[in-house]
Amino acid sequence: MGEGFRVVVEVNGDSALVRVVGDIDLAARDELRNALHDACDVDRVRLVVVDLSEMTFCDSSGISALLAAKNEAAARQVEIFVTGASPSVRRVFEIAGVADRFLGPPDAQ
Question: Is 6-108 CATH 2.40.50.140?
Answer without folding.
Answer: no
